[in-house]
Amino acid sequence: MSKTGICLKCGSKTDISEKACKCGCKDAVWSKKVKLVDGEIVCECGNRKFRCNGHFDFTDRYVNSLICDCGNAFSVERYRSKEDMYYWDEP
Ligand SMILES: [Zn+2]
Ligand SMILES: [Zn+2]
Predict the structure, then answer these.
(1) Structural domain boundaries enclosing 29
(2) How far is CA 27 from CA 1, 9, 43, 70, in A?
(3) Burial 17-41 (b: 16+ CB within 10 A, else e)
(4) What is the pLDDT of residues 17-49, one digit of tens each?
(5) pLDDT for 79-89, tens place per residue?
(6) For a designed S-S bond to 61, which of 11, 79, 82, 85 qualifies (C-beta 3.0 to 4.6 A apart)?
(7) Integer distance in angstroms from the first to the last C-alpha of the chain?
(8) Residue 26 C-alpha to ligand 2 middle, in angstroms?
C-alpha cells in the first residue's frame, strides 16, 4: 500500500517512496483527507485546528500525530533544519 502525502511547502502530492518532494522539501502531511491552504493544513471537514495525539522524535526529524474533531487522524513529518541540530548540540 503506498502512502500518499502532501508537501508542506508547495502542497503537491508526495510519496513516501521518494526522498523529497520535487520542490526539495521533505516535510509532509500524510493523509488523503487533508489539503494545504495558504501553507496551513486544512481537514476535508474545513477544520484547521487539530488535537495532538502524539509526538515522536527522531534524530533528523519529528512526527506529530494529530487528530481532527471529525475523527480524521493523520501525521505530520518535519525534518529538522541544520540550524535546529546545531541548536540542540549546544551545551
Ligand atoms: Zn514540495
Ligand atoms: Zn476534520
Answers:
(1) 4-89
(2) 20, 7, 17, 24
(3) eeeebeeebbbbbbbeebebeeeeb
(4) 777 899 999 999 999 899 999 999 999 999 999
(5) 988 776 665 56
(6) 79
(7) 43
(8) 24
